[in-house]
Specification:
The protein has 610 residues and is of the alpha+beta class. The protein is built from 16 helices and 22 strands. The N terminus is likely disordered. The chain binds zinc ion.
């Protein structure tokens, strides 16, 4: 790895005092320095190596080969293991329409475990159907509750654009499956989401496996320490027609701040209610396609991984993601002879050979859940564009990675329960103070990326321009306000904020506030962009440049105030600062720059709860 990849993201939390690079936790002597620049006491923080293991770390041994401690096993053996040294099935499939040779396929032998979800049955040509998922979840819920003390329920969380039921399986040892009961039990909750992109099936199939292992298999013991909420297929409409986007053409994984799609709304509601400490978003990435066209090479890595990388994330959140999750996860994959790399992608423009890590915009599940102070993890397997080729290995990769996340959460349950309130208070405590980043971007770097020769299957090193999301570049910063005033007409924006769990107050009696109003200095229209190019079927956005004008504003009765002394403050800023592509204003959820004012002193008007 080059040095650029050794960095962890910079943050804004007292960044001027601690320098621009994070230190490994074990070396983080100046904890007191961090503590000194916030008013919130720090939770105890133990480096992973010094932490006594409460549950076994994920072990590499394939379940079907030898017994292992419960949390260490990926799957209950359900069929005789395939011989890992016999890649003939893969090679045969490669001959039948794979985008590369049998020599490439031979580098991805089937795992020593056979997964048998409905869609993975021998002879099947279709992945698990929506009806089969619904039946499967109910079967697991019923099976789970046969274990004394375990509660399980399948919950309807919304409907897709074509009316398919979106469902979550909740598994817990709390007294019930309602969010309030689960939270009262004081254990961390993991939210697992699959197939936001309909043409990425391995995450969905893997989550069915994980559901069964939690309900009645070898992962049952982790429920002693954590709760798990599973949405195996977030985009059933796209899945039915093997399409990335939702049925209306919108990419739901760029909709997690705006919440224009019912699918993203359903996930936001779930996160609001269950307040997950950890969120896993399971995807697949393009194996050949535009990579083959640009680089004459096939992609190599079984898994690509990235945590939240967007502006204003609390430093400790990134530390937890890196040290408590990424490192054990990479070790677990390695133990299964599965290769991994940071997540990367490339645009659809064949002349553009830049490789970019996952984006820095606050629009994906990965970044938006980070702004909700959850450890937010993206896992991608090599699967887009290769149909069912290597599907057992792809599912095995997902199962291995997700099992590692569950084990890490169980192992760190107590610390995570301390970390979350610390983060929430820490973010809230920054209201009215110092600078906040309005927009950040990746940093340009060079990287030697390993790919595969499409004929020989040999490793092929490619030197690429590489946009790193691990070191954020501040593009725009402003004083952090105390809150935002919103006009009485801003009801759609208020509803979306509340769907995220943001506290919004209503002005109960007319008053005034000291604030900065936005003045337009330039405006055009355009498209939202990500590292892949224009975001699928997004409406035109308003790209505005602004200046600020300080003054006393009238706050009429019935207008709104969104305080920043709350845990979601950084998400609020991402939504309400108008001059970014992800903002509510740019995407016309807020109408007119005059609908929003940055409130720069604690308001003294009478406010009421909505
Ligand atoms: Zn995807």
């Amino acid at each position: 790895m080059t040095t650029i990849l050794q960095r962890t993201p910079t943050t804004q939390l007292c960044a001027p005092h601690i320098g621009r690079r994070l230190r490994p936790l074990a070396l983080l002597a100046p904890l007191a320095l961090l503590a000194a620049c916030t008013s919130v006491p720090l939770p105890p923080w133990t480096p992973p190596s010094a932490q006594p293991a409460a549950t076994p770390a994920p072990a590499p041994a394939p379940a079907a080969q030898r017994p292992a401690p419960p949390a260490a096993v990926q799957v209950s053996p359900v069929a005789p293991p395939a011989l890992p040294s016999a890649p003939s099935a893969s090679a045969a499939q490669a001959d039948a329409g794979a985008p590369y040779s049998a020599a490439v396929a031979a580098r991805f032998p089937a795992p020593a475990v056979i997964y048998n979800t409905p869609g993975l049955q021998a002879g099947r040509s279709a992945f698990t159907t929506q009806a089969e998922i619904q039946a499967w979840l109910r079967e697991q819920a019923a099976a789970a509750t046969r274990t004394p003390g375990v509660r399980a329920a399948v919950q309807a969380i919304g409907r897709s654009q074509r009316g398919e039921m979106l469902e979550a399986l909740v598994l817990t040892r709390a007294g019930g499956t309602d969010p309030a009961v689960i939270q009262a039990a004081g254990k961390p909750t993991v939210l697992l989401v699959g197939q936001q992109h309909g043409d990425e099936p391995a995450g969905s199939e893997a989550l069915l496996v994980i559901a069964r292992e939690l309900a009645q298999g070898l992962l049952q013991p982790v429920l002693e320490r954590i709760n798990v909420v599973i949405v195996p297929r977030a985009n059933p409409d796209g899945s039915t027609i093997d399409q990335r986007a939702t049925s209306g053409g919108l990419d739901m994984n760029r909709d997690h701040l705006l919440l224009n799609t019912p699918e993203a709304q359903a996930l936001a509601r779930l996160a609001r209610d269950y307040k997950p400490t950890v969120v896993v978003d399971a995807h697949e990435y393009t194996v050949a396609g535009r990579f083959l066209q640009k680089f004459g090479a096939v992609q190599k890595f079984d898994a690509l991984f990235q945590y939240a990388t967007t502006a204003n994330l609390p430093e400790f959140l990134t530390k937890a993601a890196e040290e408590w999750y990424r490192r054990p996860l990479l070790a677990a994959l390695k133990g299964q002879n599965l290769s991994s790399e940071w997540y990367y992608t490339t645009s659809s423009d064949l002349a553009d050979k830049k490789i970019s890590m996952g984006g820095t915009q606050p629009d994906t599940s990965r970044n938006v859940n980070g702004l909700k102070n959850a450890v937010s993890l993206l896992i991608e397997t090599r699967g887009v564009g290769i149909g069912r080729l290597h599907i057992q290995r792809r599912v095995h990769t997902q199962v291995t990675a997700i099992t590692s996340v569950l084990a890490s959460t169980a192992q760190r349950a107590n610390e995570l329960q301390q970390l979350r309130p610390y983060l929430d208070k820490d973010v809230a405590a920054q209201a009215c103070k110092e600078q906040a980043v309005v927009e950040a971007g990746p940093t340009a770097a060079q990287y030697e990326l390993m790919m595969l020769d499409p004929v020989t299957g040999a490793d092929k090193a490619v030197n690429v321009d590489w946009d790193s999301a691990l070191a954020l570049r501040t593009l725009k910063a402003r004083a952090r306000p105390c809150g935002y005033w919103l006009s009485a007409a801003s009801t759609v924006a208020v509803d979306r904020l509340r769907l995220h769990g943001v506290q919004v107050m209503r002005v109960a009696e007319q008053g005034s506030m000291l604030g900065d109003s936005y003045r337009e200095t330039a405006s055009t229209t355009g498209e939202r962009q990500d590292a892949r190019g224009a975001i699928a079927d997004s409406n035109a956005i308003i790209k505005v440049q602004v200046s600020l004008a300080r003054g006393v504003i009238d706050a009429p009765r019935g207008s709104y105030y969104v305080p920043l002394n709350q845990p979601m403050a950084n998400l609020v800023m991402a939504a309400l600062e108008p001059d970014t592509q992800s903002s509510f204003f740019a995407n016309q959820i807020l109408q007119g720059l005059q609908s929003t004012v940055r409130v720069m002193a604690e308001p003294s008007v009478k406010l009421e709860e909505l």
